[in-house]
Each structure stands twice: as C-alpha cells, then as structure tokens.
Amino acid sequence: MQSPSPAGILVLVAVLAAATAFGWWRRRHDGRLRAVRKRPSDAAAPHRATLTVLGVRPGERTLVQFSAPVCAPCRAARRVLADVAARLDGVAVREVGVDEHLDAARELDVWRTPTVLVVDGAGRIVRRAAGVPDRDELIAALTAGAAR
C-alpha cells in the first residue's frame, strides 16, 4: 500500500475547510428573516396579483410559506407560523405547494423550501426567510410592521 501524497492531503484539507466554511455560513443564514430590497417599481406592490392568487387578502398581514411534500423542515416551519399566528391578532398564514404554484414561486424568487414571505397589510413583501424562521424574529417583524 502506498502512502498518501502531500498534494492529496492538501486537497483533502482544502475540501474539508471549504465544506466547513459553507456549513457554518449556511447555518448562520438559514431561517434568518431578511428585509426585501425595494426597487423603484415597488411603489405599487408589483407582486400583488400573484399574492392574491395565493390567497393573500388586502389589508391583512400574512405569512406565506412555500413548501413541498418531501420537505421535512417545512413541517417545523408550519408549526412556527401557526404558533406566531395564534399569538398575534390579524395575522393569517397561507401555505403554498411549490409544485402546484411553480410560476408564482419563480416570480417571487423562491428557490428552496421552506421559504416564508412576510406580507404587510398593503400587499408588499417586506421580509423573507429561506429555511425555518425564528419565532421571535417573526413576531418582532410583524409587530414592527403593525406599528407603521
């Protein structure tokens, strides 16, 4: 049996370091709510028609969850959203099957499940999270939005 070459060991160490860095980055960002950047065309809430098709009603704060049948984290996200809606008045939850609404998912830049969109009463997407969102972060985002 031949001993490993120094180049092979170096490649192995580099791959392990890259995988560790990616895992750390993914863990820090998974489920984090982030503000949605406003574009000049956002004044009229450009996704209002798509959100209406998904069941979002004007005037209500809504949590829209995109999920898939084979998505295990989607069940955890569903529980978090139900808990948040039970704690706050006037917050609706809509779960959307990404496979039934593929066009809407593409339009709303949904690339993984679960993805949660926070929609304000004016029909604008104000925050989003890819992964299972933090309950306290959601509550803070919804109560801050209600104060405006």
TrEMBL record:
Keyword Transmembrane helix: yes
Cross-referenced InterPro entries: Thioredoxin-like_sf (IPR036249), Thioredoxin_domain (IPR013766)
Keywords: Isomerase, Membrane, Transmembrane, Transmembrane helix
Keyword Cell membrane belongs to the record: no
Domain of life: Bacteria
Molecular functions (GO terms): isomerase activity
Thioredoxin domain: residues covered: 13-147
Regions crossing the membrane: 6-25
Protein name: Thiol-disulfide isomerase/thioredoxin
Lineage, broadest ranks: Bacteria, Bacillati, Actinomycetota, Actinomycetes, Micromonosporales
